[in-house]
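pinned: reference chain
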Amino acid sequence: MNLHALKIFHTISEKGGVTRAAEELRISQPAVTAQVRNLEKELGIQLLAPKGRGILVTDAGQMLASHAKRLFALERELDEAVREYKAGFSGILRIVATYLPANLLLPEWLALYKQEHPSVEVVLNTANSREAVEGLLQYDAEVAVYGGGWEEQPGIEWEQLLEDELWFIVPRNHPYGGKEITLAEMMKVPFILREEGSSTRERLFSLCRALNVSPPKVGLQFNGVNEMVRAVIAGYGAIFISSLAVRDNVERGEVERVMVKGTSLLNPIAVCTRKQEALSPAAAAFLSLVREQAKGWARN
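pinned: its C-alpha cells
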C-alpha cells in the first residue's frame, strides 16, 4: 500500500475536503485528487464520491480512514519515541559499579539523573573491580564506575573523575589510633579485607610486597565496604579504605585513623566505557552529569 497516498486520503478525511487537505499538505488540489485515485485503483475500492459541490467519504473510505487514523497516530508516537531516545530521555541505562562509588556516589548522582530523565530505566549492578571490567566487556553494562587502582585493559576507555586518599583505620581508643607507625607494625593488627578481586585489597598486598613487609593477617572478609566499617566501629581489626567511605566516621570519633610511614596512596574514581563504541544517548547524558558532579566532590 502506498503510504504517502494513504496519508493524503487520511488528511482529506480529517479536514473534510480536498481543498483543506491540499492547504494542510501544501500541495495542489489536482495532486491530491490524483493520489487518491491511484490509491483507489491499488485497493480496488471507491474512497470518495461526489456530493453536490463537495465530496463524500464512502463506507469503504470511512473503514480505511479509521485504520489510517490509528496507523498515523502510532507513527506520531514512534516519531516522539525516537526524539526522546535521541535526546537521552528514554531507553535503558545499564551501569556496573564497584562498591565504593555504588554506595557513596551513585545514589546521589542517579537521583539527580532520574529527575532529569524520569523515563530512562536504570539498572545498576554492584561488583568488585575484576567483575566490573568483565561486566563491561561482556556487554552486561554500558558504563562502569570504578574505584581503585587501574591497569590498562584491552578494549576499555578509562576516564578519571576524582581521587581521594586511602586510609588505615582502627577502632576508637586503639593503641595505634592517631599515631604514625611503620607498615610492619600496622600489619601486626588483624585486618578486615574485601574479597579477592577487590582493587583496594590488591593495592594493600602490592604495598606490602613493594616495601618487603609481610602481608596482613586476614581476620574477617566481607564483600561490602559498609560491613567492614561497621566491624571496626564495633571494635575489631583494621581496614585499608578510601577516605570517602570513612571520613564521617572519623570526624564523629567512631573510628581512628593511623598514619603509616611511606604509604601515601591516592584512590582514583573513574568511568569506564568500551573503546571506539558510541554511547547510547542515555549513557552520554549520564556521563555528562557525573563529570559535573565529580567536579563538586573534587572541590570538597
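why pinned: The CA atoms of residues 47 and 62 lie 8 Å apart. The first strand starts at residue 48 and ends at 51.
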